[in-house]
Design a protein that fits this description.
mainly beta
Length: about 120
């Protein structure tokens, strides 16, 4: 069964750090482009970070210099290191995998930044 499962979200104070992770099962992650999206309450889902199967990455302007996407193909895992968190980073964070016409979404993990 193909599945993406996020974990590692939670409640953190402004300025703090979190590292959500995404575990893939049922397919080999190494040949897929991976992305992290987020969706805040009442807002549209937005792309946060992207990493190609070759390892090239890009970030949204809103998180540049603070968030870093990485992957461990041996473990079929993708990570999102989030530093200097702000209240506006509060959202559900989703993992996404795509190769050609095949794509998969995770169920999301909640990140709340609040004092």
């Amino acid at each position: 069964q193909v599945q993406l499962a996020e974990s590692g979200g939670g409640l953190v104070q402004p300025g703090g750090s979190l590292r959500p992770l995404c575990a893939a099962s049922g397919f080999t992650l190494s040949s897929y482009a991976m992305r992290w999206y987020r969706q805040a309450s009442g807002k549209e889902r937005e792309l946060v970070a992207d990493m190609s199967s070759a390892g090239d990455s890009t970030n949204a302007d809103s998180v540049k210099g603070r968030f870093t996407i990485s992957r461990d193909n041996d473990k079929d895992m993708v990570y999102l290191q989030m530093n200097s968190l702000k209240p506006e980073d509060t959202a559900v964070y989703y993992c996404y995998a795509r190769r050609g016409f095949n794509y998969y979404w995770g169920q999301g993990t909640q990140v709340t930044v609040s004092s």
